[in-house]
Amino acid sequence: MRWGDEVRPAAGVAPSRTTAVDEEKLAAALDLLEVRSVDTLDEVPDLTDHYAQALAALVNANLHAHHLAGPVGPGWRPQLVDLMEALRQSVQDAGVERGEASPGVASTPWNPRPRKRS
């Protein structure tokens, strides 16, 4: 879906003149489409629907109350990332690339002055 101002007019997009199509090439293209087409996806031998298989396994496990094995082994813990430290490091690295600071020199933290209350 697009907003009205995002849609360009069709004028100038389509070719302004008709082109001749070689009948032999057109017949070959239609023959190729006919040969490669199938009526149902069941006729494709090497097509596997992994999503349907995983969904069926999940449904069967829920029906029989079995625990599904997770994608990782026991003892695995996710790696936690300090987003503020990653941001500081990114800003420092960008400053080093621009020559604003030397590596290993920590910038002073930003401490805004308190606002006056009236």
Given as residue ranges, the uncertain stretches (5+ residues, pLDDT < 50) are none
Tell the overall outline.
flat
Q: What percentage of the residues does DSSP assign to strands (E)?
A: under 5%
Radius of gyration, in angstroms, nearest whole number: 31 Å
Q: For the residues shown, what is the average pLDDT? A: 81
Number of helices: 3
Largest sheet: none
Strand tally, please? 0
Helical content stands at 25-40%
Task: Give the N-to-C terminal Cα separation.
Answer: 50 Å
Give the class from helix and strand content and strand pairing: mainly alpha
Structural write-up:
- It is a single chain.
- The chain is 38% helix and 0% strand.
- With 118 residues, the protein is an all-alpha fold.
- The longest helix is centred in the C-terminal third of the chain and has 16 residues, at 83-98.
- Residues 1-20, 92-118 are annotated as: Disordered.
